[in-house]
Amino acid sequence: MKFENSNCAEDSIFFQAMEEVIYSISPLLESDPKYKRYAILERLVVPDRVIKFQVTWLDDNNKIQVNTGYRVQFNNALGPYKGGLRFHPTVNEGVLKFLGFEQILKNSLTGLPIGGAKGGSDFNPKGKSDFEIMKFCSAFMTELHKYIGPRIDVPAGDIGVGSREIGYLFGEYKKITSSYDGVLTGKPYMFGGSLMRPEATGYGLVYFTQAMLEHEKKDPLTGKVCTVSGAGNVAIHTIEKLQEIGAIVVTCSDSEGMLYDSRGVDLKLIKEIKLERRGTLKEYLEVYKDVNYIPVADYPDGGHSVWTIPCYAAFPCATQNELTEVDAKNLIANGCVSVSEGANMPSTPKATELFLTNKICFAPAKAANAGGVAVSEFEMSQNASMQKWSFDMVDERLKETMTQICKRVALTAKDYGVEGNYVDGANIAGFKRVADAMITEGI
Ligand code: NDP
After folding, report:
1. What is the distance between the alpha carbons of residues 303 and 322, in angstroms, rounded to a whole number?
2. How far is it, in rounded angstroms, from Cα 241 to Cα 339?
């Protein structure tokens, strides 16, 4: 396959994601010629459209600031485009193409009627006042609203975009269009949000891991030491569910460093620091003086300190490529049994390969972190039917969805001769559903 008109440096992460999928699905492509006849792969790796726009806003000093906004609408064979918005200085077209491409297969795996997309901006929310965040979100939506709609494209949150930002984006959409549509998910509960959306990705990750460990006849997580990276939405709710089921979570991290508390981390304090104060994990030491805090500058060469801590199960929940070959070797040497990806593609290809060859139970992101988008779809259903589901009902459906995804992935892997390989199972099962829809819909 040739990729012309590509900005290779920016697209390298997109190619990394694509390469893994192409390799995984080759047995399917060989076994059924219709996918080649309909040029599904060639059509799937190019987004339907990439929308790129200028976002101009006034900071608190009345100085004009300019950022770039994007929406990558990748594929809508299964339903409206659906995928998060990321506000982070590292955002560029390549990163969003990688995330959008992964999102197609992830959304397909849920079995729900949603296509794949991703968007965001290189805007850095760190250090910005609440008014600056509001002004940026308004300016971003001034352009984005032209391309989205409850049956067209329904964005949600991602790194740097939580319920505060979704609230401001929704407010601006409503002002421009005079329409009270379910056009964004992850909305605050008081105006159309679903209960459990904030918890969904983390809780879903733990439900998937429980199902995988049971299927692979390994010990459950209760009483086991677990390591988690990140300290954002996904990490915090992963820790919360793990603690609820009796696991001992000893680490978390942010972009400045990592925390190791062998007694088990104090989640209440972490929430206070990261969610309420928007501070750094170093502040944990003000309460617990004896814990280990390692700043990023002191991480091992080519690796990350979180993964040097012995554990039964590891949960990378920060960002892409945060778990390297060095880290994978450390985890394996320390007897780790399972690795579940909460972040999108946190493991590098070398790390993934090591996990697979060493028979570690490895839950890839597109299957294991699909709980967030599944509950987003539940939010769309509730908005469309003007209903409100209870917390228990959402939780029950989330658990069922994650268990079903796990079963589908495991069975697909077995059917294609790679039993126990959840990477290939997820790629084949996710690809097949989208590809069959594309064939049925014609070109
Ligand atoms: P948040 O913005 O809430 O948290 C991200 C966390 O990761 C923060 O602790 C942040 O540190 C840390 N982090 C970000 N970049 C880096 C970096 N380069 N190095 C080290 N740490 C970093 O995001 P989410 O929790 O929502 O998202 C985390 C991951 O999960 C992403 O890969 C996202 O795409 C994926 N995901 C999220 C879903 C959701 O529902 N939110 C759904 C599915 C996947 P700091 O606090 O210092 O910024």
Report:
1. 8
2. 16
Domains parsed from the chain with CATH numbers: 46-180 (3.40.50.10860), 200-363 (3.40.50.720)
Q: 């084949």: which residue's tokens?
A: 428
Tens of pLDDT, residue by residue over 194-220, are 999 999 999 999 999 999 999 999 999
The tens digit of pLDDT for each residue in 322-366 reads: 999 999 999 999 999 999 999 999 999 999 999 999 999 999 999
With cut-offs at 50, 70 and 90, classify the pLDDT of residue 432.
very high
CA-based nearest residue to 422, from 209, 226, 115: 209
Helical H segments across 32-180, by residue range = 34-37, 40-44, 93-109, 130-144, 163-177
From residue 223, alpha-carbon distances to 7, 147, 240, 312, 377 in Å are 48, 48, 14, 10, 33
| Ligand 1 center from residue 82 Cα (angstroms) | 19
How far apart CA 383 and CA 52 sit, in angstroms, is 29
Contact in structure between 410 and 215 (CB atoms under 8 Å):
yes
**Which residue, judged by its Cα, is nearest atom 29 of ligand 1?**
343
SS3 state at 367: helix
Rg (CA), the chain: 21
**Index of the ligand 1 atom closest to the CA of residue 197:** 40
Which residues form the catalytic set? 118
Interatomic CA distance for residues 295 and 290, integer angstroms: 15
Closest CA to 228 of 215, 240, 219: 240
Report CA(254)–ligand 1 centroid distance (Å): 9
pTM higher than 0.85: yes
Classify strands 64-75 and 116-121 as parallel, antiparallel or unpaired.
antiparallel
Rounded to 5, what percent of the chain is helix, strand, coil? 50, 15, 35
Q: What is the distance between the alpha carbons of residues 188 and 67, in angstroms, rounded to a whole number? A: 26
Q: Hey, which bits of 270-404 come out as E strands? A: 292-295, 313-316, 338-340, 361-363
